[in-house]
Structure formats: C-alpha cells, structure tokens
Amino acid sequence: MCSPRRVVGTLSAVRILLSWSSGKDSAFALATLRQREDAAVVALMTTVNAAAARVAMHAVRQELLELQADAVGVPLWTLEIPSPCPHDVYEATMARAIERALGEGITHVAYGDLFLREVRAYREAQLVGTGITPLFPLWGRDTRVLADDMIASGTRAIVTCVDPQQIDGAYSGRKFDAELLADLPRRCDPCGERGEFHTFAWDGPAFDHPVPVRMGATVARDGFVFTDLLPD
Predict the structure, then answer these.
(1) Pairing state of beta strands 197-203 and 156-162?
(2) Pair 143, 156: CB distance under 8 Å
(3) Could you read off the pLDDT of 19-57 as tens digits, one per residue?
(4) What domains are there in the chain, each with its CATH number?
(5) Contact predicate 150/112, CB 8 Å
(6) CB 211 within 8 A of CB 203
(7) Closest CA to 23 of 165, 150, 171
(8) pLDDT digits (tens, 9 = 90+) for 5-15
(9) Distance (Å, rounded) from C-alpha 170 to C-alpha 173?
(10) Do 134 and 123 meet the contact criterion of CB atoms below 8 Å apart?
C-alpha cells in the first residue's frame, strides 16, 4: 500500500525488518532506529488474525494498520494466523517470513521488547542459524523514563486492549499520556510490558502525518477489554 519514502541510511546500512505490533513501543523503536546512520528499516512485519482481519492481541483493524504503515512510509508485511494460533502454525508462519527476509537481503529483525528476558530468549532462539541477527533498540531502558520520553517526543497512542486481571478495564480507550501514567496503579508497568495494556500509535516522530482515527465501542471479550478504533 505504501511507498518506502522513509527508508534511510547510508549505502552500507544494514537492512532491518521491524516486528510491528501497531503500538507505541514499535513506533518508538522505529524512530530510534532511524537515528542510526548504519540502519535502514525496509519493512514492517505484523501478525494478523485471519478471521477477524485485526492485529493479533491489539485487535486493531487491518485497515488502520495499513494506514499506519503508510503514515510511517515503510512497506507492511501482514502474516495471517488463526485465532487461537497453535504454536507450530505460528512458528511455520514466522519461518516463512524469515525466508522472505533473507531473499530480500534483510540482515536484521528488530523488536520493541523492553525487559522480558524469556521473550527475548525465544526470539533469539528462533533466529539461530538463519543468518538473521536480532536487534532490541529499546531493551533495558527504565520503562517510566521511556514512557515519559515517548510522550515528550510527540508519540501519540490510544489504549486498545486491557487485561482486567491486572488493571481496571476502564483504562481501555484512554490516551497514552502523562495523565494515564499518573493514574496507573503502581503495580502496572508504565509501558504495559507485562501485558497490562496494549496501544495503537497514530502519530509521533516516526510518522510523516497522523493517522486519522476515532473511537468505537468498548467491549469485554475473551477475558480482555477492547476498544475498537475506526478510520476517521
């Protein structure tokens, strides 16, 4: 859908495929990688619920995902998976994506993970022997400082999914801003890294222009609270 307007870097820059959830961490990881002259993000990779045409877990409509990719100016790879997705199906889907990446001269896959070591270890293990190197541009940063930095940078996001076992479902649909951070319970990670909440980023330093979006209905489903977002 989009043309690669923002693929930058020197001629010797490494070619990076960015794992893209549609949330604030992915968007800020893209902005961070673009500060490196030795790196060029050439594609975004997102898993999509094939039946619902929505981003897995975040529940963002595929139409908005495509508008978002256009707004950041990087081609989008959508990887369709069933819901629920058996582990072997997920791994086979990712293996095909890695094969495609190798065929397109991609040397690195970047992730927006922050501190969950088991998640990082899994991603690293999946790339062993493939010829692809994992990157974690936000890894190890204090998440309260990181959340403040995201907001200060102009990153704009909306909470699309909440785990009500961890925080109140009323947080779904709220802006990711200083007021939200002040209201979150102390047990909640400011970036939602433990799955407390997920977001959709609609503007920020990685964007050429904002994604026009408006709020839809908020519903409880499958043990989570989701706020639907619609193109405006």
Answers:
(1) antiparallel
(2) no
(3) 999 999 999 999 999 999 999 999 999 999 999 999 988
(4) 14-231 (3.40.50.620)
(5) no
(6) yes
(7) 150
(8) 454 444 568 99
(9) 8
(10) yes
Question: What does the pLDDT look like over 127-177, one tens digit per residue?
Answer: 999 999 999 999 999 999 999 999 999 999 999 999 999 999 999 999 999
pLDDT tens digits, one per residue of 106-136:
999 999 999 999 999 999 999 999 999 999 9
Q: Which amino acid is at 26?
A: S
61 touches 35 (CB < 8 A): no
Taking residue 180's Cβ as centre, other Cβ atoms within 10 Å add up to 18
**Sequence-distant (≥ 6) Cβ neighbours of residue 1 within 8 angstroms:** 66, 69, 70, 76
Contact 16, 40 (CB under 8 A): yes
The SS3 of residue 170 is helix
Q: Which two tokens stand for residue 11?
A: 């001629």
Model-level pTM greater than 0.85? yes
- Rounded-to-integer distance, Cα 132 and Cα 144, Å: 31
| Amino acid, single-letter form, for residue 182 | A
Contact 34, 8 (CB under 8 A): yes
- DSSP alpha helix (H) spans, the chain: 24-33, 62-72, 87-103, 117-127, 143-153, 178-183
Q: Quick one: which H or E segment has residue 40?
A: strand 39-49
Name the burial class of residue 217, with classes exposed (0-12), middle (13-18) and buried (19+) by CB atoms within 10 angstroms of its CB: exposed
Reading phi first (left if > 0) and then psi (alpha if -120 to 50, else beta), residue 216 is in beta
